Amino acid sequence: MKMSNKRIVTIFSGDCFVSENRNIIISTILGSCVAVCLYDKWAGIGGMNHFMLPTRTQDRSKKQSSHELYGLPSLQKMVKELLRAGAVNPRLEAKVFGGAKVIKELPLNIPKSNIECALDFLKQHDIKVISSDTGGEFGRKVLFDLSDFSVYVETLTNTKITQLESFINEQRNINTSSQ
Question: What is the model's pTM?
Fold first, then answer.
């Protein structure tokens, strides 16, 4: 993955980014969350989402946050944006990442449910999964290069996660100040 002259767009939980710009690398960091990279090679359009939970809870007494934190609305939004930009559904291909069980004490298996949510959606929409790196116990840093739709994945040990906290905060500050 050649990084020179490329713009890095960092997405966070609840985000989705789609572009035709071949000089962009989309970046995210995942634990139990899942990111799906979708693209249409022929049209030269790609995108990545990052969702935290498979489904929205039914408890209306609690304040609900962005729909894109949840698998189905996040995936639907990304497909809609890709199609609007000129992608064609039968040509869409996917790469799926994340869903690590980084917190072993969770009472529910949210990471597994996140992975299943993404794979079920892709299967229902006849979108071929080209590659995936899911599950396990460690998080991942994912870089999706829109020039050739390649993905670089780095497994994050606890040491690397600690080192990346400052990077994440720095990227959040950059994204916030540029809006």
Answer: 0.83
For 82, residues 6+ apart whose C-beta sits below 8 A from its C-beta are: 18, 38, 39, 40, 45, 46, 47, 92
- Is 1 within the bounds of a domain? no
Active-site hit among 16, 33, 37, 117: 33
Q: Does 141 reside within a domain? A: yes
Q: What pLDDT, in 10s, does the model give residues 47-86?
A: 999 999 887 655 544 444 556 688 899 999 999 999 999 9
Catalytic residue list contains 16: no
100, with CB counted inside 10 A (0-12, 13-18, 19+), is buried
Residue 154 lies in a domain: yes
**How many whole angstroms separate alpha carbon 31 and alpha carbon 50?**
11
